[in-house]
Amino acid sequence: MSERELRRNLAILPIGTVRELTLLTDRQIRYYEQNQLITPNRGKGGQRRFSLNDVDRLLEIKDFLDAGDSIKDIQEIFEKQRRKSVGQPDSETALRRSLQKEFAQIGRFGR
Amino acid sequence: MSERELRRNLAILPIGTVRELTLLTDRQIRYYEQNQLITPNRGKGGQRRFSLNDVDRLLEIKDFLDAGDSIKDIQEIFEKQRRKSVGQPDSETALRRSLQKEFAQIGRFGR
DNA sequence: AACACATGTCATAAAACCTGACACGAATTC
DNA sequence: GAATTCGTGTCAGGTTTTATGACATGTGTT
Prior knowledge:
Oligomer: homodimer
Domain HTH merR-type (chains A, B): 12-80
Number of strands of chain A: 2
Pfam family, one (chains A, B): MerR_1
Largest interface: A-B, 24 and 25 residues
Organism (chains A, B): Leuconostoc holzapfelii
CATH topology of chain A: Multidrug-efflux Transporter Regulator, Chain: A, Domain 2
Order of helices and strands of chain A: HHHEEHHH
Largest sheet of chain A: 2 strands, antiparallel
GO molecular function, one term (chains A, B): DNA-binding transcription factor activity
Helix content of chain A: 55-70%
Protein name (chains A, B): MerR family transcriptional regulator
CATH class of chain A: Mainly Alpha
Structural class of chain A: mainly alpha
Strand order of the largest sheet of chain A: 1-2
Distance between the termini of chain A: 17 Å
């Protein structure tokens, strides 16, 4: 996995931050977790730690729900996405990689 | 400020995460704040919220201290940096901007 | 009418964080 | 060499945040 992807998958955010970033309630976030739409890590004391990818995912979930999809629908949508992107890098990943070198110069994590 | 810079400056991390990311102790982090080497935001209840830039900064501080610089030395170093980068965008920012459009396609925050 | 869904709300407990104070070893200054 | 400064450790006491589980509710579906 690339630097950038790594960073996006770091479990660093408490639920409070995610709440502010997504404008969802704790209840909603936990409910989506309960239904396996997201699977945040847990810190030492058992508290949830979300990644930026989780935040993305939650915003997607929000859109889908607003669009009338049910939780189960969304589960299937995500499942299809997962199956489709198995194995070979998709174009997004390819693009990302092509710019990786440049960005490696930028930002502390890349130093 | 660009999308990317915005994101780097979002105050999203609690001190526990920063502790894990930097391997500093709470005491150290607070002491550096007390000496104005960093100025994290505060959440609603008064708890510190750090940005990714803050994390960068803390890692720099660590390096400087390891290299034998004192807190005051570091204050001056940062002050000089600040003065130098006032006004016009530096090359790093320019590079960032040039790649901004591409990256706007990638990741939720850019959608 | 009964039920499923997505969410609100409340109680209770644990974890994380806050500030302030005192201690301490290693340098530095008097 | 005694006193001071610096960066950090640690502890106490209080506040904030998060966790789980249960019950409630409105909207739509069988």
